[in-house]
Each structure stands twice: as C-alpha cells, then as structure tokens.
Here is the input.
Amino acid sequence: MRRKLAAGNWKMNGTGDTLAELAALLRAHPEPGCEVLICPPATLISRACAAVGAAPIRIGGQDCHMAEAGAHTGDISARMLADAGASHVIVGHSERRADHGESDAMVRAKAQAARGAGLVAVICVGESGAERDSGATLEVIGRQLFGSTPDGATGNSTVIAYEPVWAIGSGRTPTLAQIAEVHDFIRSELLGRFGAEGTQIRILYGGSVKPVNAAGIFATSNVDGALVGGASLTAADFGAIVNALENA
Ligand code: 13P
Here is the structure.
C-alpha cells in the first residue's frame, strides 16, 4: 500500500514569520492520516524542523546540487539539507529546469545525490502547454521520467510529481481524465523499468491544486497525493487539502 503524501512547495516565499502557518498546520493536524511534507526555502529548513519537533510532519528542500561538496557558490548539497533536518528534496521542478537550464541528466544526478544523503527525491516532470497542444504529452513525460529517475529507484527513495507546466500557478488544471492518462502512463513506465518496486513509488499531481479541486484529483487513478505551491502557503488552504487526502 502506498502511503498518501500531501507536499507543499513554498518556492521563494517565506521568512521567519511565515512559520506561524506551519505552527497552525501542526495544531490543526497533530496526527495527520497521510504523510505531510513542507518544503520551505532553504533558509527556513532548520527553524521549520525545530518548529515541527517530534510531530509527524516532514521538512524538505526544493533543490540540491549533484556534487557532495566543493566550489559551487550559492549551492546546497543533499547532505547539507539532511544535516539541517530535511528528509526529502524536490529535484527537477519545471521552474529550475527553466530558470537554471537543468537537464534530465542533471536532475537524475541530483536525485542520486539525494539518495546518497538518505533523502527522498521528489522528481518533477511535466509538459509545456505547447507540448500538450501538439499531442506530445506522453512522449515528453516518458523521456523526462526515464532521463530524470536514477536506476534502482525504490518507493523509499523516490516520489514522482507530475506537474504540467501550464497548470502551475495558472488556476488551470487538466481534466481528471487527462490526469489519469498521465498517471497511469507513469505507473506503467515505472512497472516496466523497476518491476514490482514500481508499484511502491508514489505519483503526486501538482499544478493549481486547491481545496476546491483536491478531492476530485485525489479520487483519480494512480494519484497518490499532491505537490502544492500557492495553496501550501496558508495553513487554512493546505490543511483543507490534507483533509481531502485523508478522506480520499
Ligand atoms: P501551484 O500549486 O501554485 O500551481 O504550484 C504548483 C507547483 O509548482 C508545486 O511544485
């Protein structure tokens, strides 16, 4: 059985005062019925971990460098994230692929680095609007998934997040049939490559997940949870999404 996962990506949002939202989430969900992960900016990871304490909410990074250490000014290694208290790291988010020119090979190396540091890698894939319009969605997802996921990926080391680029921050989402088509495709690709272990790898949907559409998305085939951007910034909205997943 795959444990459902509600993951929040705060992106480049949040300073110390934003941790009040995390505290409110903890008060509202002291024992969540699904796994809950918050990925704040790196500057807040230590303080977020201190705020969570022994409560069962996990804290993750939003990116890591592929190298263990060295002359990479401004970058953060997977081991540094783990040292700060993180248990997960997002790799290959479309904003990093676009803003920092990250290729599938780089994302795969980052996911490998994450595994080496004992972190769960949340590997993001997703087609652009133009790619969907031209009918290339499954081809793009297949290529990104294969290129970005390390050999030997397991349910314990790896989570896949399907995030259509055109749905991120836009208020637009694919139809539930379109989400099911891609998630079923990802599942069959994982089974083909990793055998039985492919059933253990969770597949999240991301892109304009809100309290109002969460229940429908969570009832969709092979959707094991969500990677949430904007709606993860407030305890009220993210808590409602956690509730929807608990009840899914
Ligand atoms: P939004 O939920 O704001 O669309 O962002 C999704 C996302 O990119 C999460 O990683």
About this structure: The longest strand covers residues 120-125. Residues 9, 93, 163, 168-169, 206-209, 227-231 surround 1,3-dihydroxyacetonephosphate (CB under 6 Å). The longest helix spans residues 176-194. The chain has one domain: 5-246.
